[in-house]
Amino acid sequence: MANNTAGSADIQHNVAIGMSFAVLAAIGFSAKAILVKLAYIDSVDPVTLLALRMAFSIPFFLAVAIWGQFSQRGAAMHTQDWLAVFGLGLIGYYLSSLLDFSGLQYISAGLERLILFLYPTMVIVLLSLLIRKPIGRTTLMALVLSYVGIALVAMQDVRPGQDGLALGVGLVFASTLTYSIYLVGAGQAIARIGASRFTAYAMTVACVAVLIQFALTHPMAALRQTDRVYVLSFAMAIFSTVLPVFLLSAGIRRIGSGHASMVGAIGPVSTIFLAYAFLGEAISVSQIAGSLLVLAGVLMIGLKH
């Protein structure tokens, strides 16, 4: 009996740690939009800001990648594994990040996070198309709720004479789509390689791709930014890139990807309040209503699948 009690306590402790990791990861990812918007005040362009973020991040991912390669953990990687890491790293972390940073020039941080949070609905649609399985009524209702919610929140960003809203929404939507494609394709690779090792390799590919793009399109003098931009870029690298990526992996190992996704629902909510606190973005009735619809739609998808 004592052993059963001890075992139950260990399980509860493990779940509590996993939930804590998932919550911290969601808040860290959400803070990225706030840091980006704060950096844009100093007129830094998206590619330069993304390059600074990746330059500060890459030493950590390289360290984990090298450790994973030589620590004899996980199965040996074959050509198809390296191709998966390269392709998915470019799609899921390089292209998705570039589109997201570009979109944040035109829309609020709260709207950006809600659009990004649509990824579970997109994953379900993509999987349905791949296996040619019709989308059920519950999933369809979840999709309608989610996208009506996005429309309500987008109304908050509409201002007289504003031309960039549609472009910003389109760019962040494309970012969400590319990330969803990454998630659909990454499942088998992660199962073979391991979550932490795959993430470190894929992120290293993305970091290198961003730095190459910067070198080809910008003069090195563009890296001369204000101290404020450097601090924000470093904070973005540590608290909204490196730590959340590995915290989420650790959380998934303890509570599973389904529960971790549900915990991720705190992300859009935390972004709205962080944007209110640090950016002065208003919290309106339509924004709250739209956020609740998006969360309801995503939770419906998560609970069903």
Structure description:
The protein is mainly alpha-helical. It has one domain. Helices cover 83% and strands 0% of the residues. The protein is built from 11 helices and no strands. The chain starts with a helix and ends with a helix. The relative contact order is 0.21. The mean pLDDT is 84.
Keywords:
305 residues; mainly alpha; 11 helices; 0% strand
Strand content: under 5%
Model regions low in confidence, pLDDT < 50 over at least 5 residues: none
What count of structural domains?
Answer: 1
Mean pLDDT: 84
Structural class: mainly alpha
Radius of gyration: 20 Å
The number of helical runs is 11
- Chain oligomer state: single chain
Helix content: over 70%
Q: Can you summarize the main beta sheet?
A: none
Q: In sequence order, what are the helices and strands, one letter per element?
A: HHHHHHHHHHH
Strand tally, please? 0
Distance between the termini: 35 Å
What does the overall shape look like?
A: globular
Short structural summary:
With 305 residues, the protein is mainly α. The protein has eleven helices and no strands.
SSE map:
Elements: H1 2-40, H2 46-70, H3 79-103, H4 109-116, H5 119-131, H6 137-157, H7 165-193, H8 195-217, H9 227-263, H10 266-278, H11 285-304
Helix pairs in contact: 1-4, 1-9, 1-10, 2-3, 2-8, 2-9, 3-7, 3-8, 4-6, 4-7, 4-10, 5-7, 6-11, 7-8, 9-11
